[in-house]
Amino acid sequence: MEAEPPLYPMAGAAAPVSRDSDGVLGPQLDELVGAYPNYNEEEEERRYYRRKRLGVLKNVLAASAGGMLTYGVYLGLLQMQLILHYDETYREVKYGNMGLPDIDSKMLMGINVTPIAALLYTPVLIRFFGTKWMMFLAVGIYALFVSTNYWERYYTLVPSAVALGMSIVPLWASMGNYITRMAQKYHEYSHYKEQDGQEPKQRPPRGSHAPYLLVFQAIFYSFFHLSFACAQLPMIYFLNHYLYDLNHTLYNVQSCGTNSHGILSGFNKTVLRTLPRSGNLIVVESVLMAVAFLAMLLVLGLCGAAYRPTEEIDLRSVGWGNIFQLPFKHVRDYRLRHLVPFFIYSGFEVLFACTGIALGYGVCSVGLERLAYLLVAYGLGASAASFLGLLGLWLPRPVPLVAGAGVHLLLTFVLFFWAPMPRVLQHSWILYVAAALWGVGSALNKTGLSTLLGILYEDKERQDFIFTIYHWWQAVAIFTVYLGSSLPMKAKLAVLLVTLVASAVSYLRMEQKLRRGVAPRQPRIPRPQHKVRGYRYLEEDNSDESDAEGEHGDGAEEAAPPAGPRPGPEPAGLGRRPCPYEQALGGDGPEEQ
């Protein structure tokens, strides 16, 4: 009996498939399901990893631009706010007896004091939210601080300043961790052919990602230091039109530079020639708010994840108690102990650029209307000099970091003996040169330290702890500068000089120990303890374990049993629960074939 034709023939159906004498389908089936004749596996693989590398570059640029916009908005708003609140007439006309100076002092206290506790919660927050989402959350808190300036009251400014202070260390620690991870990923995607012949557990050689890390850190800090220049745009295009000239603001100033005491002693209490209209202030703050929101969108939409989902789970599964303790346990490592003076100096020198050079030497002698241009010179000099960190590709590792310290040492000696005269503009070019050169030293310092930490600690289980310690010590140094703001300039320069020399000597001592082969004492990272059984965790090998665990394995979990059928009946709970139909039949699972 012949088979009936189908009721609904397929549109565009081909001719009937022929069969040979044995009933085997002919060449039509081979043409249908066979390999694409023009498919080139190596070319497709090359294109795939090229897209991956471009994605990493996109992540680095987005994170750098987001950090630049965030910090630029914060600095610009804080600078404009403090200048407006300093003016007596503005306070009396706008806010009466509300006590703006007292609010400003408590706001600065919240920004500078709160990060002291950051070592207790930063690693926990980074592991809980993940690196990317911690960056997004911290940028959102910066945007919250900007939004509170629409309604300047004690209950808006002070709580937002405290929240901002809590997010400072998590933001920059997660940023440093993120850039380091991107360098490691870029190396992985660039050398994918070398990894084909390696075992799954084998990691790339130590320091193999260092060239990419140097480039990425140079890009990041070039963007970051541009924030000092971008922060001056509200000052240049808005606030400078309302300021008195230097003959009025510096009328009672007697000494500047190394002979000054505190911050701008004798500065006039009225600096605004006319008061800015409230509508204009709202427009400026709205622009800053829009830029802060743009930074949030950059981090949210363009920054990819720093870790794979399974790696994120492993990082959290070591135990929250261990995550809390590990930053303190890393103090055993002599490399970190030797770098602590450099961490402290890194916080000192940034604050000295903004308060010492810009205010004590710059505004004190050439007037408040030139403050923005001094900070622009500092920011542009630091941004351009960030690429000098690429010299580490050809020179020995200590050269960029020690060169930055040498530039600052020379400038500190010059500033120690220089006292510019108030209301004299002939030496203004010296101030711009000094600000730009200080920016060169700052760029070499920041780029060198972050690159060094990424090279010394390339295990992904430790990077968030290390960058947390680095930025926490920076926050401690900034808090110390905040407490000593009323000291004479010579005392500030002396502290800066002693810290700089101690940090350089300590760092060179660390490099000497490394050359001698002294092994650092690192705390052991516990193995992940998973509470669920997923497909990823039934594998015999843990591909995310650290090198120390893979080599020594002390205190590790017992080895997984070999794969294969086990003797005796298989319990139902090990694979999956039996469905209701199987339970009704009285069985533990699907029947074995």
UniProtKB/TrEMBL annotation:
<feature type="transmembrane region" description="Helical">
    <location>
        <begin position="401"/>
        <end position="421"/>
    </location>
</feature>
<keyword id="KW-0812">Transmembrane</keyword>
<feature type="transmembrane region" description="Helical">
    <location>
        <begin position="56"/>
        <end position="77"/>
    </location>
</feature>
<keyword id="KW-1064">Adaptive immunity</keyword>
<feature type="transmembrane region" description="Helical">
    <location>
        <begin position="107"/>
        <end position="126"/>
    </location>
</feature>
<dbReference type="GO" id="GO:0002224">
    <property type="term" value="P:toll-like receptor signaling pathway"/>
</dbReference>
<dbReference type="GO" id="GO:0005764">
    <property type="term" value="C:lysosome"/>
</dbReference>
<dbReference type="GO" id="GO:0034138">
    <property type="term" value="P:toll-like receptor 3 signaling pathway"/>
</dbReference>
<dbReference type="GO" id="GO:0005768">
    <property type="term" value="C:endosome"/>
</dbReference>
<keyword id="KW-0399">Innate immunity</keyword>
<dbReference type="GO" id="GO:0034154">
    <property type="term" value="P:toll-like receptor 7 signaling pathway"/>
</dbReference>
<dbReference type="GO" id="GO:0005789">
    <property type="term" value="C:endoplasmic reticulum membrane"/>
</dbReference>
<feature type="transmembrane region" description="Helical">
    <location>
        <begin position="465"/>
        <end position="485"/>
    </location>
</feature>
<feature type="transmembrane region" description="Helical">
    <location>
        <begin position="212"/>
        <end position="239"/>
    </location>
</feature>
<feature type="transmembrane region" description="Helical">
    <location>
        <begin position="133"/>
        <end position="151"/>
    </location>
</feature>
<keyword id="KW-0391">Immunity</keyword>
<dbReference type="GO" id="GO:0034162">
    <property type="term" value="P:toll-like receptor 9 signaling pathway"/>
</dbReference>
<keyword id="KW-0967">Endosome</keyword>
<feature type="transmembrane region" description="Helical">
    <location>
        <begin position="491"/>
        <end position="508"/>
    </location>
</feature>
<keyword id="KW-0325">Glycoprotein</keyword>
<keyword id="KW-1133">Transmembrane helix</keyword>
<dbReference type="GO" id="GO:0006886">
    <property type="term" value="P:intracellular protein transport"/>
</dbReference>
<keyword id="KW-0051">Antiviral defense</keyword>
<feature type="region of interest" description="Disordered">
    <location>
        <begin position="518"/>
        <end position="593"/>
    </location>
</feature>
<keyword id="KW-0256">Endoplasmic reticulum</keyword>
<feature type="transmembrane region" description="Helical">
    <location>
        <begin position="281"/>
        <end position="307"/>
    </location>
</feature>
<dbReference type="GO" id="GO:0051607">
    <property type="term" value="P:defense response to virus"/>
</dbReference>
<feature type="transmembrane region" description="Helical">
    <location>
        <begin position="157"/>
        <end position="179"/>
    </location>
</feature>
<feature type="transmembrane region" description="Helical">
    <location>
        <begin position="371"/>
        <end position="394"/>
    </location>
</feature>
<dbReference type="GO" id="GO:0002250">
    <property type="term" value="P:adaptive immune response"/>
</dbReference>
<comment type="similarity">
    <text>Belongs to the unc-93 family.</text>
</comment>
<keyword id="KW-0458">Lysosome</keyword>
<protein>
    <recommendedName>
        <fullName>Protein unc-93 homolog B1</fullName>
    </recommendedName>
</protein>
<dbReference type="GO" id="GO:0035325">
    <property type="term" value="F:Toll-like receptor binding"/>
</dbReference>
<dbReference type="GO" id="GO:0045335">
    <property type="term" value="C:phagocytic vesicle"/>
</dbReference>
<keyword id="KW-0472">Membrane</keyword>
<dbReference type="GO" id="GO:0045087">
    <property type="term" value="P:innate immune response"/>
</dbReference>
<feature type="transmembrane region" description="Helical">
    <location>
        <begin position="339"/>
        <end position="359"/>
    </location>
</feature>
<keyword id="KW-0968">Cytoplasmic vesicle</keyword>
<comment type="function">
    <text>Plays an important role in innate and adaptive immunity by regulating nucleotide-sensing Toll-like receptor (TLR) signaling. Required for the transport of a subset of TLRs (including TLR3, TLR7 and TLR9) from the endoplasmic reticulum to endolysosomes where they can engage pathogen nucleotides and activate signaling cascades. May play a role in autoreactive B-cells removal.</text>
</comment>
<dbReference type="InterPro" id="IPR043268">
    <property type="entry name" value="UNC93B1"/>
</dbReference>
<keyword id="KW-0597">Phosphoprotein</keyword>
